[in-house]
Design goal:
By secondary structure, this protein is an alpha/beta fold. It folds into three domains: 118 residues, de novo design (two linked rop proteins), CATH 1.20.1440.110; 213 residues, Alpha/Beta hydrolase fold, catalytic domain (Rossmann fold), CATH 3.40.50.1820; 58 residues, no CATH class. It contains 16 helices and eight strands.
Amino acid sequence: MQFLFSNESFSFEALRVAGYACYGGSDLGEVLVASRGIPEGDEEAWHRQWKAVAEQLHRIATKALARGHRVSAREAFLRASSYYRTADFYLREDPRHDPEVALLSRRVRETFAAAAGLMEPPAQYLGIPFEGTTLPAYFFRAEASGEPRPTLVYHGGYDSLLEEAYFAAAAAAVKRGYNCLAFDGPGQGSVLRDQQLTFRPDWETVVGAVIDKAVTLPEVDSDRIALMGTSFGGFLAARAAAFEHRLAACILHDAIFDAHTSAWGMLPPGVLTMAAEKQDDEVTQALEEPMAQNTGLRWFLRNGMWAFGVDSVAELVRTTPPYTLRGVADRIRCPVLVLEAENDAMFRGEAAKVAEALGSGYHHVLLTDAEGAGEHCHEGAMQAFHQHAYDWLDDILSL
């Protein structure tokens, strides 16, 4: 689905942020203004334009709050946070040491925190104990009575930030009467940026710590906790559900059986073999031209090296074989919603593999291009995705 850009990666990311408009994560006019100043494939202009829109809204929100206009302030802070995230997206040449990455990450958090305090009821920031440190989380409550309610535990994927979780899952959950406990784990958000903790395959340890915290919250019905993971998080959530049996349901948005083989199918022939044989210089040489020409591939590999804590593409390839549900999926005991996007070329066929491995106890939904929901993770069609996900969850948890 081409949207505003011919560059496939730019088109998708513009669609991603525009799709959050229904939950306050963008406004169409602002998306158009930012996008029209960005030449095709110009990552510097992408950063500059989205940051400018974000800063303008940041100023508007601050002034609105000072004048007592809480709703206007909340809405402007939310959009500013979303646009700061978008401005940061392609800054992946040296994200570990880039001060602009640190600045934008901080602004994403600051503006969202300001909006969270203006929500009704206010979203609660939590630090979840985890292996000697804490994982950042927000607890979004459906209402303020304090009564136990069904609760969605949510995390993103390969590049998500905690603050994006509000638009991706929490706002829709709260509207339907669910609490939502969203968090960043290793490899994600400030856990990666500030703590330098990178992805790990035993995601059940991460989700287990979050559920340990969830069951201590009086507003959480511990018998009705569901888990949802987005994109690469669709693999991570399934992995967690195989070992964490306090879950009443699991939503794979979208389902990935083998993150290693599916992700590296995009690489030129022979690269996987060279990486396995530790021919790292040859891998770098083979990818030099494809990375220079392909925005999405360049971003994907650079972001992966950062999020997995490695220094070369070859090392990244060698790090990912454990990220598979082979020999694991059949341990999942709770009902599972297997979501799939028709146009998701990278993960085509993965949902069917997950369904086959589960054997039973799952519901498979293919969202299509004809309904505007065929892109990866149904970007641009958030309400259609949420209808399928939460209607299924309503039925499973008898909400």
